[in-house]
Amino acid sequence: MSKIVIAVPSKGRLEELTREVFANAGMALTRPGGARSYQGEIVGHDDIIVRFLSAGEIARELVRGNLDLGVTGEDLIHEAAENGAESVIFAKPLGFGQADVVIAVPEAWIDVSQMQDLSDVAADFCAHSPRLLRIATKYINLTRHFFATHGIAEYRIVESLGATEAAPASGSADLIVDITSTGSTLKANGLKILPDGVILKSEANLIVSCAATWSKEKKNSLETIVKMLGGEITPQYQAL
Asked: Is 67 within 8 Å of 209 (Cβ atoms)?
């Protein structure tokens, strides 16, 4: 029988809390090769392969079907591909890793308090400036989709490789799309969140890949594992 491949976060608070979830379900995660090893196992479950990966990599591999089950943020699934959320099943929200993907503009923009105002600003830039409105973000897919739903097309994305919240102050962008838990870092950098600019409320989830290849026996094993972890087996999953 093919083994179930499960991926969990490889470090930090996400790893610690994920370990607690599995341990509470009687499925203690171990890392025989030490903290630098990417391979793990669950004692008493020889039918499971555990991989320790970054949260972003887990999302991408779930969407591609290279993993059967994983723990990662909902925001990363949406960002992994345009149809990322359609390629997986969110089996259980885990109650940690909460962060909102938001649009934040300079506090000095006193006339901008909602997305319609931002639409007007984007149009003004297009009509009266030699450049388009610039948005710094790591969330390119989410940004494009959200702005399209608000009818905003006159902008340019500046892909952020560092501290996104610093982009407006440095002059590399006019506003940002980023994640926040409390908003304090944004405020410290002179930014404000638009009330209707919350793109996604995210948290860590137990996630099943719809793109993975399963035999009937393997699917039954995966169903058992998900139930042990308190996940919901949805009609969408049953139809796969």
From this structure: yes
